[in-house]
């Protein structure tokens, strides 16, 4: 580690490129925190958005018109509005309506933190798209295959879980992949409600060290890396789900 | 309707009993009053031109298609009843489809095991033993780990039969199960069904295979345009039909 730090310090002195996060312990700690926050936002939002997608697609097939209408309304609201507006709506709009408690300094302690609001809002945003993605997969499952499950005595939920969903997932993985990549990148919007994720931390650092270009370069590489890992995982999953003699 | 006490069904009564069954899809009346009785252990073949309502008829029996009018009793239980426990009915009535409709993401053995494990909540190991035995019964030993996409049409259809049998149904419905197969593979599937009939399983078979119907059926029904034109033992219907429509149909297919 010391070698790396020394090299970046030398780089700064020799060329003026100032990557403080690689030699300054305080900046390094800050950026590590920001990186972990971005990972945390991404992982939790991805998982929640998948749950929302699966649940929403299931409810969309409901016999009750009211339920279908509610799912449709949810999709319309979250797909047709900008994610930044959604985050503000939740954090400033709903967040202030919820009851808070007083903390030890007599300040108002909101029920949900900005991090929690960011996760909720990002999950709903990506979840709305996931519902549509899963629906496209479900529609690709042949009616006759579903009928075979029904004829064997499967309930609607059993058919969904054991037959429709596994097949639908295979169809919609590429589209899902795209949406999850988008979600990971959209976590930067949490910046707007002061969630200390990578972009927020980078801005704080360049505020004191005047190294905007360096921090932006770091961010670009960090996101290429993170998205690269996500895409790698999704491709592994796609390959693992391939069925011999089915599809390609 | 008051929850009328249905008299308990005994095996000497018809296991499937249809009375004046009517069904329309939109303005098209597909079944125009079908009445038939099937005794336990009997093999019934339903023949007739395409679009005569044969498939719809047997789909009504396991409630895949809801009928408009009439009565269907399966082991004394009314199928045309909004309070019907469809799932319980379908556990008693197995069905095999023209297009096999196997679950493509599961191996042949898993296809056979799924419903008993998921629907009947039976013990996985015990089900597996039974599923392997069924795979042998349909002569597909060694294909347990193949996916449906890796099997021929005839093999897939035999897996589909094994999948239905794994639920230990009292009645089996076969919906033109050889219509999508090559002539060579038709035989192996028919052989499997013949074996089931010989075992005494009640079978309702919609088919275009007249030779097969003649051989295995206890009773043949000829349907055309939503009505049963005539029915009787296979030698009467297939060799000496009385109705003009039956004669015309048989001349065309034989």
Automatic annotation (TrEMBL), chain A:
Q: List the coiled-coil residues.
A: none
The processes (GO biological process) annotated in the record are: amino acid transport
Q: Name one Pfam family in it.
A: BPD_transp_1
| Native source organism of the sequence | Lutibaculum baratangense AMV1
Q: Which Gene3D superfamilies match?
A: MetI-like
Main subcellular localisation: membrane
Would I find Transmembrane helix among this entry's keywords?
Answer: yes
According to the record, the segments passing through the membrane are 35-58, 70-94, 114-134, 188-206, 212-233
Query: GO molecular function terms here?
Result: transmembrane transporter activity
- Its topology with respect to the membrane? Multi-pass membrane protein
Write the record's keywords in alphabetical order, separated by commas: Amino-acid transport, Cell membrane, Membrane, Transmembrane, Transmembrane helix, Transport
Query: What's the protein here called?
Result: Polar amino acid uptake family ABC transporter, permease protein
UniProtKB/TrEMBL annotation, chain B:
Stored Pfam families: ABC_tran
Species whose genome carries this gene:
Lutibaculum baratangense AMV1
* UniProt key word ATP-binding: yes
What would you give as a GO molecular function for this chain, any one? ATP binding
The molecule here is called Glutamine ABC transporter, ATP-binding protein
ABC transporter domain sequence ranges: 16-250
Family per similarity comment = Belongs to the ABC transporter superfamily.
Q: Please verify whether the record's keywords include ATP-binding.
A: yes
Per UniProt, the keywords (alphabetical) are:
ATP-binding, Nucleotide-binding, Transport
